[in-house]
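SEQUENCE-TO-STRUCTURE ENTRY
===========================

Subject: a protein chain together with a token-level encoding of how that chain folds.

Sequence line: the amino acid chain in single-letter code, read from start to end.

Question of interest: how does this chain fold, as expressed in backbone structure tokens?
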Amino acid sequence: MAFMSENDALSGKMAKAFVTISGNVHELFYAKTGEVTVEKNKTDVPVLGKTNVGKKSTGWNGTGTLTVYYISSLFRQLMIDYIKTGRDFEFDLQIVNDDPSSTVGKQTVIARNCNLDSMTLAKFDATSDDPLDEELPFSFTDADLLGSFNAPQQ
């Protein structure tokens, strides 16, 4: 019987994230968490002679969330520009998982044409000892897998 090595379980702390906005690459060294999700749209397909209802994939939706420490005005300035001019902005988000203690290597995923859904323009919290953070929910329209994990060793 084969078992996965405990060292191959990836540490999320070893990831890196970057955004590319108008050709400029910014490392998100102040990010806390990030997740990029694809949800398939499906249509019911009843089939004569079957008691179940089958499903046919008909499209997909891409969404994600970044949680970052509240220390950068990069996205805030872009949102203010949108408010003032009506010119929207998009960015590409690249996430690299690379835990050197794992034998599976690294994986690099890019979510393309990301567009923020909402953001916090200003905040404070005099009741907490925790550092301020903010969530940046977004949608995206394309993705690429630039590098894949190796098969786990047995």
